[in-house]
Amino acid sequence: METDRLDSRKMAILNAIIRNYLETGEPVGSRTISKFTDLSLSSATIRNEMADLEELGYLVQPHTSAGRIPSDKGYRLYVDKMMEEKVEEVNNMKEVLDQKADRIENLLKKVAKLLAVNTNYASMITTPKYRSRKLKFIQLTNVDDEHLLAIIFLEGNIPKNKVIEADHRYEESVLLKLNIVLNSLLQDLDLEEINMNIIQKIKEQAGEDSALIGRVLDAIAEAIREEDNIEVYTSGATNILNYPELSGDDSARKLLYTLEDKQELAELVDDKLSSVDSEHKRTKGDIQVYIGNETPIDSMKNCSVVTATYEIEEGVYGKVGIIGPKRMDYDKVVGTLKTLMTQLDEIFRKK
Amino acid sequence: METDRLDSRKMAILNAIIRNYLETGEPVGSRTISKFTDLSLSSATIRNEMADLEELGYLVQPHTSAGRIPSDKGYRLYVDKMMEEKVEEVNNMKEVLDQKADRIENLLKKVAKLLAVNTNYASMITTPKYRSRKLKFIQLTNVDDEHLLAIIFLEGNIPKNKVIEADHRYEESVLLKLNIVLNSLLQDLDLEEINMNIIQKIKEQAGEDSALIGRVLDAIAEAIREEDNIEVYTSGATNILNYPELSGDDSARKLLYTLEDKQELAELVDDKLSSVDSEHKRTKGDIQVYIGNETPIDSMKNCSVVTATYEIEEGVYGKVGIIGPKRMDYDKVVGTLKTLMTQLDEIFRKK
DNA sequence: GTTAGCACTCAAGTAAATAGAGTGCTAACA
DNA sequence: TGTTAGCACTCTATTTACTTGAGTGCTAAC
Predict the structure, then answer these.
(1) What pLDDT is stored for residue A272 in this prediction?
(2) How many CB atoms lie within 10 A of CB B168?
(3) Does the beta carbon of B136 lie under 8 angstroms from any beta carbon of chain A?
(4) What pLDDT digit, counting tens, does each position of B124-145 carry?
(5) In the complex, which nucleotide's C1' lies nearest to the CA atom of residue A44?
(6) Strand C nucleotides with an atom less than 7 Å from a protein beta carbon
């Protein structure tokens, strides 16, 4: 693969062609390059070089008498070797910083929107994923004669509420006892570690109130599962419609469809994006760029996807990505994501 | 307005035209009707009647030599007088019933999706709106040396958690005292009723811990405000792209845009849909039908919107709506919404 | 190795021709 | 007076042929 080394002139020409195409979206002709660059070569010479570049697979001709456009391989080379990252401001980032986003999901939604507005492409962001959730602390409280409230603290200081049906009102002293039993036996365990053995022990110690224990454990399981569920927020999906190369065929339609169904999208991103990552590490800094067919998600095969991984605390991370046409402004997108990453970092460290 | 009473034959013809147009989406010609109906009239006669109906404003001709299509006024008459509600099954409704939707927002999301899948149009549903939220019960608990947890129960048995920063660990006995003070003074008050007078009283009784009170009150305010915020969930927005009359011009694009920005959509639905309701009560049972320009939301002026109001408990209600092309299957949509309403009713009563 | 020049290709736009669905109107009929 | 047959007319949509222009590949000369 690496046999086809390009001499510096070919590189310069390819670079010029891609840059021009990214700007205009029109196939680029030899004359344009001849004038556009300071190589001072005639169009005929450029034509020869272009023919070579096409043979090498970096360029493609939509039809015989049109100019050239970059192939996926061409884009790849551009991203790997020619791109000049711009340092991009993320506009209005202060706003996000300012509003105290106590709920992380609100923060994530804001970030997605910001990215979409700044880039004019579509964006998505997942909730952070914990390796596994452990129970830190549980407390039962009376609500009324028929309901108890279980406050469940998971690793990462996430409090969850679960209302539990009760057949009668429990004495405060009984609840105190139950709370102690539950915490002493369950603390720092995750779902897999709570086995029948432990459950039996709890029931024994609970004595006559063991009927309640089943429901409490259900509540815990539910809380942990809920928090394990990755969610995805998207923004600017409709921006996709602005790019004729996508809205022409029904790529855009399929893409919108994928972006709309958050449930499915979450699975896709979790399964596919993560697994491909390790496989071919086409990485630029901490940023991954998937061009066209490199993307593991079918409905994005006519697009490019740029993703980054944010870390909210040691080992707890999520993905953020931008989806646009293959001729997206890679320089800008990568730059934007990079500054976003550092800014997010600041927010999370501060917390 | 009510001067132009239509004789029964005109009604029959108009009915036939609209039904045919709803099915095919193509302008309807006189010959079609002549054969399609059992009126046994020649096409020429139908033509005369059609000319009359056009003059009266019920039909419209896209261009001279095309058939007729219904005007908004025509649709209106159809919906008010001619529609035969079908009793529509809502497929897979059991699924929703089955899964215990402990969080209402999950239930609402499911419902939206169900509607979209069943009808092939776009759907939206708002979270229920309380007139005002009162505080039922608050409890402070220790988390660790630097944090307290405030569990805040609002009217409607909605528990909310707020983590509060603390400068030191509080004794259990102190917390107990604070809890009693807070509850005795704040119970059953809403935001407006918590005034400086009351706040002063609490601080007096809290004594040396009054510093904490400010933060607790902030937490309460936040919890109430959060719950007051109406949210909207949508589904099937991309279905809109299936209707050429919308995706032709950029109605669909604008509509998708509106449906994507939940924040803005929530405001629109809250402001506009509710206010128009009382104004011109174009109601069919409990269902409102907005045809074309009747819709108060700009980006939906080329569509029809059918909404219903669900009640989750006495005085607490939300809106659910379906957005489709003007030539939507009103019979089906209205039927679907009606059965949905009764089914939702069952769910909420049972709770 | 570079360049000028020329014949060739192909998409896109323009213009004219055709087909077909549907109308409005008139005149005749019951 | 209401209904119908018939015919000329209108307008869109589709097809076909023609033209334009950008861009190429190749050859021959520098």
Answers:
(1) 76
(2) 7
(3) no
(4) 999 988 777 889 889 898 877 8
(5) C3
(6) 2-5, 8-11, 20-26
Chain B window 58-97, residues with Cβ within 7 A of nucleic strand C: 61, 64-68
Bridging pattern class, strands B147-154 and B135-144: antiparallel
Nucleotide nearest to A27 (CA to C1'): D23
Contact, A20 CB vs strand D, < 7 Å = no
- Residue B6, pLDDT above cutoff 50: yes
Query: At residue A192, does pLDDT exceed 70?
Result: yes
Helical ranges in chain A per DSSP H: 8-24, 30-36, 43-55, 72-77, 93-98, 104-119, 172-186, 196-206, 210-228, 244-247, 251-260, 262-268, 274-279, 330-350
Q: Which amino acid is at B103?
A: R
- B256 chain-A contacts, CB cut-off 8 A: 237-238, 241, 256
Confidence of residue A281 (pLDDT cuts 50, 70, 90): very low
User: Residue B91: what pLDDT?
Assistant: 73
- Please answer whether residues B322 and B123 qualify as being in contact, where contact means their C-beta atoms are separated by less than 8 angstroms: yes
Residue range A142-180, pLDDT digits in tens: 887 888 889 898 887 778 888 888 888 888 889 889 999
Structure tokens at B64: 């001279």
Judged by phi (left if over 0) then psi (alpha if -120 to 50, else beta), residue B60 lies in beta
| Helix axes of A196-206 and A210-228: crossing angle, nearest 10 degrees | 140
Q: What percentage of chain B carries pLDDT values higher than 90?
A: 51
Q: How far apart are CA B214 and CA A256, in angstroms?
A: 46
CB pairs under 8 A between A and B: 55
Band of the pLDDT at B149, cuts 50, 70, 90? confident
Residue A173 approaches strand D within 7 Å at CB: no
Cα A203 from chain centroid (whole Å): 43
Residue B101 has pLDDT above 60, yes or no: no
3-state secondary structure (DSSP) of residue A231: coil
